[in-house]
TrEMBL record:
Its EC number is 1.18.1.2. Residues 15-116 form the FAD-binding FR-type domain. Its cofactor is FAD. It is an enzyme of class 1 (oxidoreductase). Gene3D superfamilies: Nucleotide-binding domain of ferredoxin-NADP reductase (FNR) module, Translation factors. Pfam families: FAD_binding_6 (PF00970), NAD_binding_1 (PF00175). Belongs to the ferredoxin--NADP reductase type 1 family. It catalyses: 2 reduced [2Fe-2S]-[ferredoxin] + NADP(+) + H(+) = 2 oxidized [2Fe-2S]-[ferredoxin] + NADPH. SUPFAM superfamilies: Ferredoxin reductase-like, C-terminal NADP-linked domain, Riboflavin synthase domain-like. The lineage of its organism: Bacteria, Pseudomonadati, Pseudomonadota, Alphaproteobacteria, Sphingomonadales. It comes from the Bacteria. This is ferredoxin--NADP(+) reductase. Keywords: FAD, Flavoprotein, NADP, Nucleotide-binding, Oxidoreductase.
């Protein structure tokens, strides 16, 4: 049989979208992948923000979705983390991308999962489920975060061990990172938990909080304190609603870019 070459459309930039090149793709399992693309010289963003990315739809028009940037603001490339949805309008196509392919990138990043939306504090807790880890990968590698906070904690809850994207890098306290490795060695903490397979932590985040297990090895109180702790949340709607109510009860005020507070969520999308 002859190899069949599928012609891929040539994308054209628009006023709101640039066209970038896929540099690498990493498939974590059958449901999860990450990829890196070129970054325009003019593209500026704050670690933790999201941007529209996409491909050409069946109608010839851009098919876009909001994705948090997983790489830090200083990185020369842009990285994203995505689930694979077989019948998803975008992800069914996006999961097939290969190095050299073209992809749309929005020109205007935005979002509330940024340090500007939080009041000063001592500990920063970033609570995530699934691909909600993405913005926290960006923030965990931002040197400014380690200047703003004494302790930086990333909590990641997933169903299966193979869903723990970037586990090795985070478990190693970002030792290979050129800018934050020194600070992260003493300030960074990674708390992974797996709910449907055997793992050292195998309960949901709320149980880690209730038992105090989330705070083990982290300087400070074994509980959340609205005076000193700052919280970011990204992931499932269930987790965000549950903890949003919990933190409000504990005296945490929600923050925004216009009015910084003690905790923030990304209201633009939940995935």
């Amino acid at each position: 049989m002859n190899d069949v070459t599928i012609e891929k459309p040539v994308l054209e930039p628009t006023g709101a979208l640039s066209v970038e090149t896929v540099l690498s793709v990493r498939h974590w399992n059958e449901h999860l992948f990450s990829f890196r693309i070129t970054r325009p010289a003019s593209f500026r963003f704050r670690s933790g923000e999201f941007v529209m990315i996409g491909l050409q739809g069946d109608n010839g028009k851009p098919l876009l979705r909001a994705y948090s940037v997983a790489s830090p603001a200083w990185d020369e490339e842009l990285e994203f983390l995505s689930i694979k949805v077989q019948d998803g309008p975008l992800t069914s196509k996006l999961q097939l991308i290969q190095p050299g392919d073209q992809i749309y990138l929005g020109r205007k990043p935005t979002g509330t999962l940024v340090t500007d939306a939080l009041l000063p504090g001592k500990r920063l807790f970033m609570l995530s489920t699934g691909t909600g880890l993405a913005p926290f990968l960006s923030l965990a590698r931002d040197p400014d975060v380690y200047e703003f906070y004494e302790q930086v904690v990333v909590v990641h809850s997933v169903r299966r061990v193979s869903d723990l994207a970037f586990h090795d890098e985070l478990s190693g306290k970002l030792a290979d990172d050129p800018l934050v490795a020194e600070q992260a060695a003493s300030q960074f903490h990674y708390v992974p938990t797996v709910t449907r397979e055997p793992f050292r932590n195998n309960v949901r985040i709320d149980k880690l909080v209730e038992t105090g297990a989330l705070f083990e090895g982290i300087a400070g109180e074994p509980r959340f304190n609205p005076e000193t702790d700052r919280i970011m949340m990204c992931g499932s709607m269930e987790m965000i609603k549950q903890f949003g109510a919990y933190f409000e009860e504990q005296g945490f005020a929600e923050g925004s870019n216009a009015a910084p507070g003690a905790y923030v969520i990304e209201r633009a999308f939940v995935g």
